Amino acid sequence: MLMENARSEIVEYGKKVLSEGLTKGTAGNLSVYDPETGYMAISPSGIGYFDTKPEDVVIMDLKGNVIEGNKKPSSEHMLHAVIYECRPNARAVVHMHSMYCTVLSCLHVKLHSVHYALADAGVATVPSAPYRTYGTPELAEAVRQNIGNSDVILLENHGMVACGNSMKKAFGLASTCEWVAEVQWRCMCAGKPFILSDQDMETVMQHFLTYGQKSPDGTRHSYNG
To answer: What angle do CA 182, 183, 186 make, to 5 degrees?
Structure first.
């Protein structure tokens, strides 16, 4: 079975995203990329996270061809592929409909640096992609055109996507962004949030490179540009 470790990791983290409230039901999807083969392991479509087995995970190339697996791959496989193309250091992608990131995406409000932890995304402001129908080439192209240097992007009226050099990193970043989004939303409810400057955030990014960052979910990681 190809990419056995990646398949097991997707099953493990699928349970974590549901247990930790980053999505509901079968919404969202996860993938792991192997640059040596050019293959991507991606969660199957329509199977609950606690019901998914390693053999249900589908192996594809970035052109959308199924290499191995007898289940239907996530409809968002093009979205994952474009992230790997745009972020060459990415080895895992987490796409979730987490509550507060989705709230901001539905307001068409960007995720801002209301807290320095956002620096782990590699930018002071997380970009957003305009609404396009899920699972379409148009959505993938919107992400390609808007992600820039960020490791995270909001999808308007949809959700969020985070990537990292490991599944642990991508999951940690998704969790951090959800926490910052909740802080931002609560600040917006109470008044006008104070946004840290680009210079403040650049300083934090340098600190992350030197010392690492312990994110609100307890995962220690460092900004990887």
So the answer is: 85
